[in-house]
Fold:
Amino acid sequence: MRREIPILIAIVVGFVYVIQFFVPHAPFDKFQNWGNDWIQIIAGFAIILGVLNLLKVSLEKVYKKSKGWGYAVIIIIGFLIMTGAGLFFSGGKNYQNPGTPFYYIFFNIYFPLNATMFAILAFFVASASYRAFRARNKEATLLLLAAIFLMLGRTPLGDYLSAGLPTGWQLKNISDWIMDFPQTAGQRAIMIGIALGIISTSLRVITGLERTFVGGE
Amino acid sequence: MPFCQKLPGRYIQTNFVWFISFFILSIFPALVFSRDTPQPPTQVQAFDTPSDAGKSITVQWGKSSDDGEGLNNVVLYEVLRSTSPEGEYTKVGDSPRGTTEYVDNSAKDKIPYYYKIRALSKTSFSDSPPGAAVVSSPQWFKKERLNALIVVLVLSLGIIYFIQKASKGKEMFVRKIAAIEAVDEAVGRATEMGKKVYFIPGIYDMDSMQTVAAVTILGHVAKRVAEYEAKLEVPNCYALVMVACRETVKQAYLNAGRPDSYSDDMIYYITQDQFGYTAAVSGLFVREKPAAIFLQGHFFAESLVLAETGNSVGAIQIAGTAQPTQLPFFVAACDYTLIGEELFAASAYLSKNPKLLGSLKGQDLGKLLMMIAIILGSILESLGILHLAKWFTYQ
Amino acid sequence: MEFWQKLLAIDRRIIFIFVAFAIIVPLFIIAPPGFLKKIDVSLPVQSLYDYVENLPPGSKIMIAFDYDPPTTPELQPMAVSFLKHCFTKDLKVIMLGLWPQGPVQAQFAMEREILVDEKIKAKNLQYGIDYVNLGFQAGNEFVILRMGTDIAAAFPVDYFGTRTKEIPLMKDVKNFDNIRLVYNISAGYPGTYEWVIFAGDRFGVKIAGGNTAVQYPHNSPYVQTGQLVGLLGGMAGAAGYEKVSGYLGKATKYMLSQAVSHAMVIFFIILGNLAYFITRGRKV
Structure:
């Protein structure tokens, strides 16, 4: 039963959602909102589950002094500080307002830390490009040229370098052409394939054929 | 006053009265009324909003001739409603100047309503005559989605047909997918080196089909890991995904005949925060130096950070996503990549389950239909046969 | 030969240092006026500007802040210049977020950039009448679907805890039928794609987007199909909107940095290819 009930729920909800897409009449108009409410309720409780698991795993690591337990200590301290600041020292409901300790931590610690992680992407793009963009064969050369045209065409630099050329050959226009035609065509083909893949997988789930995600075979 | 002197007194008097009357009739209204009272809106038409659950009426009108032209003093339209044509009209909403439509979502079903539109200037207003009575009601079918229904039915029936055919023993050909063939190699390498296998099921929740596909692939990878007696770790971004991963891996270990090797601690939650998760997983990669990394599912900007970090520690990496924007990053930084639909096909390919393989064949039928639709649509559009082309538009 | 072979397997940290310089140094240099003139206003940027420009005063615009701090440098300028344009045109703005930190970004934009701007100050904007921040709601695309029938049901209270139905600006707003444009600024999921599919296609509301450079190619096909009114892509798109709307801000300032870093990456790609060909030739 542990597996049958979730599969049954997946089948019923899946079909109801498909029907409500085509039938606006009651009671189908209500199902969508009920479903949405349930998703939010389950997601809310799941966060508690996640947080408890994180604390359990971290506390166990510290208790057993297993490899990397120092990181677990940081997780626990960070969790206690942020939760405490939000619940007890930031005026309750208005914890997000400027001037509260929660706001201070959010703006001065969380914000720059997150921005730093995203900024690392710029460096990894550079190192990955250095490794990957080699003119090994015809296809790789095309990829390499497209990358260079785009990188130049997307900044005023491209305009400086190709200002003297006829309009159609200016880097800005070449990069626009690459984006509008070959890129869009490829993108659409991949998206159509993906959409069909999603339909097929969804159909397998709502007909109960696909069960691996609930521990079935 | 030579003019007056030449005329008899009575004549002057009569004409003076006429003159004053003429003045009042022509100049006074122009001064008092017409400088600010806009012309009323015209042709008010109300109809039951189509393809909805009822309780909604769409009102359309012709713009006041002082909106955008004429006196150009209309600032707003107010939508007024009453249950009888001569009854009291109350405001139900407003719409900016230049607009000619308002959807009244405060209507009740089965009650006839009359609408008037009021054009407002800064100091004055004028009302249109009321439109005809209209009743709101719910509909049973969204007509504009008939084409979508046909496509869904054809595709679903096609997929079910091929599933049936496969169940009856018909062999289905599936081309080799290099990334999936490499699963054994990756897990074997981890076993030889005595290092861990990491499986990252994307950074999205179970409501993404990519996550469902990733968890399905995890089931097969976990089975192989259990058979080879390697070590598996699955850090999660969402608690629900964690629960699903645990169920799947537990079953996989059971199927491999090694339920004792399974532990809940192999699959744990980190954080829902995208870059918090990225930082934690990158840290794990650097410290643990895993031999094999699977990056499967729904990824965003963190894809390259994870893949480059994995690359820097020398792990064999098998990625897969249906996020077109992240595919180039995976292709550049990983050894193998499942591209788009391959992610969804992987489960069928790995399990060799005839029913699942049949669904892949149904997918191909869908692709064929799409190609025909694209070619047909392009021809119709190029020939200017637009009334047929609209059948290819989804609403 | 040895040099070129070493170059092929160059330590990535050396590349990182060069890229870091290429990004940081231009931040302290004032771009020449000629450089600013060459900032491109692409067609999707221009069409979004034109659409907003032609809206009658009082029209209601919804802005979905679907991003968080990491992508602020790229996306916040898109929010600021767009908000300034809206308020200059006397449009009413409803802000919200499907990302937890989105509404905080909206508050930052209003408090730090919009309400302190001299031109906007003269408009004497009132919260609840001219603009509102509905806050965050969990549920991704399901929130959009809910908004399609009832916005107040999806967002029962605003960012400050006031009941949505009691906010004057929201009195006439039932669902997307009462919104002239949804402008979604997004860094991923849920983002422009979900707004196009679930709000634009299902409920017929006009959608425009502002995306990170990485997300842009994913959504640009929807501009061609007309499912998006306009689309800003990355720093270049943000700078383009600043240029066309005349509110030069941070995106314009960062463009020099972007141009130099692009040049640095190209330099390394060429260097890598040079090393590849030289070492390959010798081996043969």
About this structure: The CA atoms of residues 151 and 175 of chain A lie 8 Å apart.
